[in-house]
Amino acid sequence: MKEKIIFATKNRGKIKEINMIMEDTNYEVISMEDAGIDIDIVEDGSTFLENAIIKAKEVMKIADCIVMADDSGLEVDYLDKAPGIYSARFGGEDTSYRIKNKMIIDKLEGVEEKDRTARFVCAIAAVFPDGEVLTTRGTVEGIIIHEERGSNGFGYDPIFYVPEYSCTTAEMDNESKNKISHRGKALRSMKAKMESHRNGCK
Ligand SMILES: O=c1nc[nH]c2c1ncn2[C@H]1C[C@H](O)[C@@H](COP(=O)(O)OP(=O)(O)OP(=O)(O)O)O1
Ligand SMILES: [Mg+2]
């Protein structure tokens, strides 16, 4: 029997990527929705890591299994690393990503290629029923292009171009994106940490 992990997110794009990465483990990842948990979590931490821990601990209050959470976002160097932890709230929480992406492109109008660097950052926290907390982080470097490209992924993927792969993360399939992404890196580190920390504890 696989051990259950509730992933404390309401973002379906994340869940898809996460399920693929966790497929080869002894864990069964279920979404908050599948777990019947519908709570609004206030993400008032000052770092990705703090917010990931807040999300996982909030769900742990009403769960009986391992809870994991991801807090992630886009850092644009020219904008002093904005939107950063405010990525989901940038331009308003309910504003579409078509508009958010356009807002970022507009803010970079006239900015030359070398100054359009950006990165996706992902912090993951795993909280265990015994109170232990494990955390990891992953990043991927890219540049902000001038128009949206691609329709896979979610969020800021259509404007995030990865030079080494000559495409945006929205032009990659889930498997390719997971190989290089902030979330892929953070979650694979978490899998490794869980193996070394938790073996024999159960
Ligand atoms: O791979 C990614 N590809 C494109 N955009 C991404 C990615 N990863 C994070 N992002 C952006 C989307 C959102 O604006 C913010 C995450 O915000 P964040 O609060 O962590 O997630 P969320 O509110 O969508 O779902 P939840 O908090 O329920 O997990 O960064
Ligand atoms: Mg959020």
Write up this protein.
By secondary structure, the chain is α+β, with helices and mostly antiparallel strands. It has a single domain, classed as Maf protein (Alpha-Beta Complex), CATH 3.90.950. Helix content is 29%, strand content 25%. Strands 1, 2, 3, 4, 5, 6, 7 and 8 form an eight-stranded mixed beta sheet that branches. Strand 7 and strand 8 form a beta hairpin. Helix 1 packs across helix 5 and helix 4 packs across helix 5. The longest helix has 17 residues.
Write a brief structural summary.
The protein is an alpha+beta fold and 202 residues long.
Which SSEs are present, and which pair or pack?
Elements: E1 3-7, H1 12-22, E2 27-31, H2 48-60, E3 66-76, E4 82-83, H3 97-107, E5 117-127, E6 133-144, E7 160-162, E8 167-168, H4 174-180, H5 182-198
Parallel strand pairs: 1-2, 1-3
Antiparallel strand pairs: 3-4, 3-5, 5-6, 6-7, 7-8
Helix pairs in contact: 1-5, 4-5
Bound molecules: 2'-deoxyinosine 5'-triphosphate (Y43) and magnesium ion.
2'-deoxyinosine 5'-triphosphate binds next to β3.
Provide keyphrases for this structure.
202 residues; alpha+beta; Maf protein; 25% strand; binds 2'-deoxyinosine 5'-triphosphate; binds magnesium ion; RdgB/HAM1; dITP/XTP pyrophosphatase; dITP/XTP_pyrophosphatase; ITPase-like_fam; hydrolase
